[in-house]
Amino acid sequence: MTLPLPDGEPRERPVAISCGEPAGIGPEVAARAWAVLAGEIPMLWLGDPRHLPGDVPHRAVTDPAEALAVCADALPVLAHDFGPPVTPGRAQAAHAQGVIDMIAAGVELVRSGAASALCTAPIHKKALKDGAGFAHPGHTEYLAALAGVDQVVMMLASDQLRVVPATIHIPLSEVPRQLTPAGLTRTIEITIAGLRDLFGIARPRIAVSGLNPHAGEGGAMGHEELDWIAPLIGELRAAGHDVTGPLPADTMFHAAARARYDAAVAMYHDQALIPIKTLDFDKGVNVTLGLPFVRTSPDHGTAFDIAGQGLANPTSMIEAIRLAHRMGSGTAA
């Protein structure tokens, strides 16, 4: 969103980009993204400038507002000293607190109105736990804790598909136990609110998959659909929401099916992520719904095996910054 100036004119703000794990590809893809987007989107990178590729110009700023004038010629950097030099591909305990601090700084910039949105580069959770006692299961949970919210939703989005996994990083054997009526209802409600408030879709259409093959096939392949998933969807429809399902997951993601909904809610990680990574592997963006600010992230990890070699593909980071900017300025529909 843009903030008004005293005379009523809107004020543009940069997208804040947290550095992520400095030994991974985060600094490189952020710098390459700036090279593509410099004339299109104002941005501000948070991290140690020594970690950026040497062939990309950057300039230190002390105030996020300075980024607007700097961004066309150099990547604006709100600098933080991480201490020991980085070794590509090898996370260091000494860097862990700096990574955490840059995420927190990005959240503060967005919540204060100094930045329009937060785009986070990938972190290495074990490195943060080993180096700084990081107590959260992942990036998203830490953001939720900083925001003071008890449930958020991970959406993977591209031009071809938006999909939400109702359960995420748990063993498949745990899914039936972790998947509850209250949790699924809240996931769908947060998805609807996110599509309405951040993507400008007045009445979002939500397709919900079944848990079992063929959505249980009338109880022949499982009873969850009959016992509580279908009744839950009926209650949401009675409340005025455009929700359909439970649908067989194997017929939800072809082109004609995708045209009938604005987002799909799937029951577990692979049921959601396989379709989008097959359809649009490089351009998928991770969006966190349910936060009081806009957060996106590229849909890839730290890629230690190629870090520092100039091989990283910045496409997902480019798309994550673009979507963050659109969402933050109210133009994501």
TrEMBL record:
Substrate binds at H139, T140, K277, N286, R295. GO terms for cellular component: cytoplasm. Pathway: Cofactor biosynthesis; pyridoxine 5'-phosphate biosynthesis; pyridoxine 5'-phosphate from D-erythrose 4-phosphate: step 4/5. Keywords: Cobalt, Cytoplasm, Magnesium, Metal-binding, NAD, NADP, Oxidoreductase, Pyridoxine biosynthesis, Zinc. It is an enzyme of class 1 (oxidoreductase). It is found in: Cytoplasm. Its EC number is 1.1.1.262. A divalent metal cation binds at H169, H214, H269. Signal peptide: none annotated. NCBIfam families: pdxA (TIGR00557), PRK05312.1 (NF003699). The active site is located at the dimer interface. Homodimer. This is 4-hydroxythreonine-4-phosphate dehydrogenase.
